[in-house]
Design a protein that fits this description.
Elements: E1 9-14, H1 34-46, E2 51-54, E3 62-63, E4 66-67, H2 78-86, E5 93-99, H3 105-118, E6 123-128, H4 133-136, H5 150-165, E7 173-174, E8 181-182, E9 191-194, E10 199-202, E11 215-218, H6 223-232, E12 235-238, H7 243-256, E13 268-273, E14 275-277, H8 281-295, H9 298-309, E15 335-336, H10 345-359, H11 363-371, E16 376-378, H12 380-392, E17 398-401, H13 411-423, H14 436-439
Parallel strand pairs: 1-2, 1-17, 2-5, 5-6, 6-11, 11-12, 12-13, 13-17, 14-16
Antiparallel strand pairs: 3-4, 3-15, 7-8, 9-10
Helix pairs in contact: 2-3, 3-5, 9-11, 12-13
Amino acid sequence: MTTPRKQIRLAAHFPGVNNTTVWSDPASRSQIDFSSFVHLARTAERGGFDFFFLAEGLRLREHQGRIHDLDVVGRPDTLAVLAGLAAVTRHLGLAGTLSATYNEPYELARQLASLDHLSDGRAAWNVVTTSDAFTGENFRRGGYLDHADRYERAAAFVRAARGWWDSWSADALAGGRDRPTFVNEGGVRRFAQTDRFFAVEGESTVPRSPQGHPVVIQAGDSVQGRDFAAANADVIFSRHGGLEQGRDFYADVKGRLGGYGRSPEDLLIMPAATFVVAGTAAEAEERARHIRYQQVSGQTAIRSLEQVWGRDLSAYDPDGPLPDVEPDPGNTAISQGRAGRVKDPLAQVRAWRELAEAKKLSIRDLVVETTARQTFVGTPDGVAAQLDEHVQTKACDGFVLVPHLTPGGLDDFVDLVVPLLRERGVLRTEYTGATLRENLGLPAPR
């Protein structure tokens, strides 16, 4: 008997706050117009993707005290966009990135349950933690939260949100959502939680939603983040897109699930991935190189180095050699609102100098080499084979595809690669589940 091939899970990432979006391409369109969101979402649904993934920035990034205008600097509210997309899609999941630091459990649980009802069971929540005081200045609590406390608060937050979602039992209503009547007084129960972060009590105003709980996504990679995901998440948005790194991460996180009473099938691992396809492998490589140099202008290259050097490097030529001055590790304020700071700038600079000397790289060449490489490059058949290999050999369960163009960046993938994945029998030809949770093959909420 032939074992069925493992299905590939796919998500479409609407390009967020980053410098991967190519603004200069003639095909680039608005990052704010609703039509851009609609185009990408409908393209993903046409391709049988599981969900649409929307990033969020809670403050405009700054560099040397000025708005960092080389990045995307504006984005409508996440929940408003997803609610709008619920009306123009039928099956595609709708995932929003929403902070567990600068929201409150009751309010966010109610909003997500409402989105789940409006979309007939397609809501998902990417839980993120935000610990920096710069972002906190937009909120009354400021930057009070210590970095070490962020996952503890997030775990308490998710516990509380699930408490609100569970305050209506599955049999609380008769007559369905259109004409609800309470079956018994026990159908809606009072929820209470008291811990070092929250002291809340009450019941949800929103009946139990189609999924019970919206799908929970998480993106942490530290030991603490991996444990948080193993205990709480349905999907991990991973940064480990390489084959060997992916296998190590996959085995590590899946191995943690048993300690929380869960099985490997209860959690999906989906790394971020980019792609370039063309008629031949050589054409794809040339196109990928062209895209990388579009993504990294000379100005972007200099600012990227300044974030590591902690110095003003504007006097240096981006097409010349690396700066000969040493970094200033204490100047962490040069770039504000950016995640993933380099932990050891001195070591990073040494490694970059060695790489630049060995390969004869300019500043811009170095930034292209180290920050903007596409994950999958090749012919449509070659890319399909690479994606399939990663999933079948347990490097991941699927991918969150991040296109370099808004809103048409997924068009080539859906037109050229998706048919080949379907021929391989690893991607759905139609949606069979009634909810996002069912389409992802995830169990009902515990």
